[in-house]
Amino acid sequence: MTHPGSPETHTRNWKALALVALGIAITSAGHYLTPASLRLWHSLFQRLYYLPVVYAAVAFGWVGGLIAGLIAAGFYVPHIVTTWSHHQEYALEQYAEIFMFLAVGIVTGILSDRERSRRAELQVTARKLEQVNVELQNTSEQVRRADRLSAIGQLAAGLAHEIRNPLASIDGAAEVLAPGGEPEAVRRETLAIIRKECARLFRLLTNLLDFARPREPERRAVQVPQVFDNVIDLVRHSGGKRITFRRDAPPDLPPLLCDEEQLAQVILNLTINAVQAMPQGGEVLLRALRAGDGILIQVQDEGEGISPQNLDRIFDPFFTTKDGGTGLGLSVVHQIVTQHGGTVKVNRNEDHRPGMTFSLFFPQTGKEQS
Ligand code: ADP
Q1: Residue range 284-296, pLDDT digits in tens
Q2: 30 ligand 1 Cβ < 6 A
Q3: Which residues of the chain have pLDDT under 70?
Q4: pLDDT tens per residue across span 35-76
Q5: DSSP state, 249?
Q6: Is residue 130 located within the same domain as residue 228?
Q7: What is the pTM of this model?
Q8: Residue 356 CA, distance from chain mean position
Q9: Is 355 left (phi over 0), alpha (psi -120 to 50) or beta?
Q10: Which of 22, 126, 298, 313 has its CA 20 to 30 A from that of 14?
Q11: Total domain count for the chain?
């Protein structure tokens, strides 16, 4: 982009001026040096004046066009007077032509002025846009930084809260265990509490590590129904007899390119949640089906469901409505699925049936790693 007044503009103006002067000089010389008998040549030269005039108009606007026209006329008129005075009709035609190239100079100049000012406006707009773009980038960087800080703050607050409760229990239990204290039965009960709280802390830390240091998926061709079976085996006894498990997958379901361990972890977290949502019992359905260019995996329960105000928060780290919950299960689910390029959706069951359905979509885009 060049600016008026810049060295490039100066050079360009001088070049244009020289070309206009040269054009007028050559054309005028042509007139003066060509004998009057070669009328055709004179007609040609007379029209050649248009070139420098139009060029001046384009380069310098209507004033440039007018001045170039006047200078051309200044050179041309004496030639008309001296050479064509005896031929009045032809001379009049020549004067009319002078009037024309003045008019053409002015009109072309006005048009080029208009074009120039439009270009200048466009340049101003482009500069403003550039500025706005830079400001926008700065602002979004600030927002990202604020977001990161607030996420770290939330994480720290959640973690502190999660650790304080078991610590308080363990501290209280330690007092009970002081020498010479409570009878044997109470001491045993207290030890059980310590174990339980330690297990809770251990679970919290394991989930937290999964969440905070996610590893890159190692993709292999994984048989999803096989993963369903493994997960069902793991949780079968945790829900008691009142929970039944069903798995639904077409026999021709293609293998899913994914990290098997991570997929198992995702399905396990969702299945545990499903079981915990049905204290009165019910069925957990694990379903897999082909969907477009990927595979859809669903975990459905018949539990108490999720209230609309909690629905927005269930994927937030440390959000939990359970007594011993860590609130990290769904965060890990979300993270693993996203790392696989997939999506997670959660819906209430259709047809007013109780419970929720978590749907995971995995695209089949990954490459198998050897
Ligand atoms: P946690 O299970 O430790 O609470 P999660 O991140 O797995 O942590 O779940 C967060 C919250 O989402 C749960 O406390 C519960 O309120 C809700 N939730 C998750 N799955 C279900 C479900 N299938 N039915 C009802 N509520 C659920």
Answers
A1: 999 999 998 899 9
A2: no
A3: 1-5, 181, 239-240, 365-370
A4: 888 888 888 888 899 999 999 999 999 999 999 999 999 998
A5: -
A6: no
A7: 0.57
A8: 32
A9: left
A10: 126
A11: 2
